[in-house]
Write a structure and sequence with these properties.
The complex is a heterodimer of chains A (about 425) and B (about 425). Chain A contains 16 helices and twelve strands. Chain A is α+β, with helices and mostly antiparallel strands. Chain A has two domains: about 210 residues, Cytochrome Bc1 Complex, Chain A, domain 1 (2-Layer Sandwich); about 190 residues, Cytochrome Bc1 Complex, Chain A, domain 1 (2-Layer Sandwich). In chain A, α1 packs across α7, α9 packs across α12 and α9 crosses α16. Chain B is α+β, with helices and mostly antiparallel strands. Chain B has two domains: about 210 residues, Cytochrome Bc1 Complex, Chain A, domain 1, CATH 3.30.830.10; about 180 residues, Cytochrome Bc1 Complex, Chain A, domain 1. In chain B, the strands form three sheets. A six-stranded mixed beta sheet of chain B has the order 1-2-8-3-7-6, with helices on both faces. A five-stranded mixed beta sheet of chain B has the order 9-13-10-12-11. Classes of the chains: A alpha+beta (about 425), B alpha+beta (about 425).
Chain lengths: ~425, ~425
Amino acid sequence: MDIAPDPTCQKLHLPNGLLVLLKEIHTAPIISHWIWYRVGSRDEIPGGTGISHWTEHMQFKGTPRFPSRVLDRQIARDGGNWNAFTYLDWTTYFETMPADKIGIALELEADRMLNSLFQPEEVEAERTVIISERQGSENEPTFRLSEEVQSAAFRVHPYHHEIVGDMADLETMQRDSLYRHYRTYYQPNNAVLAVAGDFSTPAMLDQIRQCYQSIPAGASPPRLRRPEPPQAGERRVVVEGPGETTYAEIAFHTPAAHDPDFFACTVLDSLHAGPTNLNMFGGGISNKTSRLYRALVEGELAVSVAGGFQATIDPFLYSISLTIHPQRQAEQAIAAVEQEIQKLQDAPPAADEVARAVKQARALFAYGSESITNQAFWLGFSEMFAEYAWFTSYLDRLAAITPQDVQRAAQMYLRPQNRVVGVYLPSRAS
Amino acid sequence: MANHSQSTLPGADDILRSQLDNGIIILARTNFNSPSISLQGYLEAGSIADPDEKLGLANFTAAGLMRGVQRRDFQAIYNELETVGASLGFSSGALSTSFYGKSLVEDLGLLLGLLRESILEPVFPAEQVERLRAQELTSLAIRAQDTASMASLAFDRILFAGHPYGRPEDGYPETVSAITRQDMIDFHSSHYGPQGMVICIVGAIQPQLAVDLVSQAFSTWHNPAQQSSYTLPPIPGLPAPARTHVPIAGKSQADLILGVVGPERRSPDFLAASLGNNILGQFGMYGRIGESVRERAGLAYYAFSNLSSGIGPGVWYAGAGVEADDLEKTIEMILAEIRRFSSESVSEEELADTQSNYIGRLPLGLESNAGVASALINLERYSLGLDYYRNYASMIQAVTREQILETARKYFNLDQLVIATAG
């Protein structure tokens, strides 16, 4: 058995290739169980956009052993909290249960790794549910803007399209394509099982072996590889729609999570726009002393500013989102962002500004560690783009970042040629 | 395992409740599993005191508290907080202004100091007030484009016509524009005070130490001018069912809300209504309503019912987001479920499932310090008693099918039904 750098975490492979991570936490009578699949919207091609997300929905529609309503009922009866998420790089399903009820989570996840039915009538009923989900998002100007910015940023890489998929594909997707997708990617050798909470490791391992060991390994699913060529000049997009409010989003291509520059960019984001909270459970903090807030909100060019930076397998985007002040134009606010970037490119930040970013990250980690569900999330999440050691060494790696590293990251990544600028213009028609 | 669960639930033996001479109630509970603390609480200052023409005043005042205090300006306040990764914020409801903070335990003194200065010594700098006003007005412009918010606003306005709960706490553009800095100063001096204030601290600290720190920060506070009592008028009631639509151009989806006045939190009907509501529109994937509207008809991504109960009349409602063309069909499907729910008792199996769900999920809601703090605040706000969570399982088990049917019949009077749609 490999021992991960966190001595409280055990990590091993079952013979069928399933990677298992276990962490005992005896602070509350709760266990959180997560199964992660290495498939997301990045594995989709035109004609099949949204297939990973739709497959995730179909996983709640039942197997012969756990028909759809039975599944829901079992978990809810036991007081469990369960959900699933589809992202760019991965799809995950979790159950957090009272510790003595966790058996049902193992049984059902092992069962639906192999035996989901994807009945045609269920596929059709879900089509309109997913279209409704997309329409709900389209009601939001920020979704519409962000979708356009993302697609302008990625011409080649499948990060190009939204996770929910394009309407054209949602209207035409067929049951057999969904089922084929499921059978291709839902394999033990393409999955990571992460369990944290109130259990003893040997007993939990026995339970895991009983449930998962008999699932045969499948062919290793190939991941779609279409690297994005370097962007050779600024790209601009404009979206028009209802409302009175103007929004802007400036997105820069930034490094993947395994790249050493990821940490310099994390510090850059923190002092630029306030720390991005990578926890799935456990809230973030305000950003009112960040450089961009002071320049834009205190400068009355915008009424809010937020930075977004995510841990991904391939280089994704660092985005700066602005809600423009009602008396200003988007271009005025964008010019102020450019000036702030220029300052960071011209001079390294003060050492205490960098130290502050590290302390902020430490606090966010402490808030996240209150929740067993969030700790289990990290066990698996970190394996999707690196490994668990990435998480356990995160604060140390941030602490090693120097002011010069931050300046260099600003020079390298926050160039105009490397960005997409998007503006949502209200039609004011209503 | 059951005993283990029971002993980790908050109870009289591990919640420290203390009251200062000036009236402030302090609640504290230890959790040494993470080096962080959650601080939450409320003051008795809410939008119920807002004049109609300045609706949003309580909310605007709460938002202004941290925009500058006697000894620090806006940037200095947030510099203290953000430098240590802490957070603190205020928000205002109809009857109270709540605050929420968190920090590493080593920074609790700093957090309490800023809480004290924000509540006792705000100066509402003119420049900051105007900046904040632009932000509030932008929020209202965004609200006007949000189908769920606009349906909800229209729903409350009809259901609670002539009652304070019929008014949005964040006001309207014209009322927010009418608020002056002096209004905020006056509101603060006549409504903020220690009477009725509650502070709760949960985290990596001994409860007595938490109480001592709060006492140091707040025990000398007095405000003889505080107007802390409020009286909620009765709800006028509707002469007939009512329906309204808020048109919002260019939206791909409409939202609907339909419902009636529900029980207050302290009502003896509350638990039966809550369990019944879970069966109607929450359990599993949105209960019976979800089964009908989402699972069978595929009309919506979300379709649910909710029971919102606090002090004074509550709201029992169902909601969904659907294509505009499907609104009528969805309303009919939800009404069919409500009619069934208020004419036939739920099955034994449904009740047993829901009871089991309520009892099982309780510790999950108490995973984080913030979850525990908000649970303790509820004990205080609704006078539920410190052993409420320890007795919770037996109270839930005691609810019968007959009680649920009786409660459903009592509240779901379709002659008083309000339907609001937007999109």
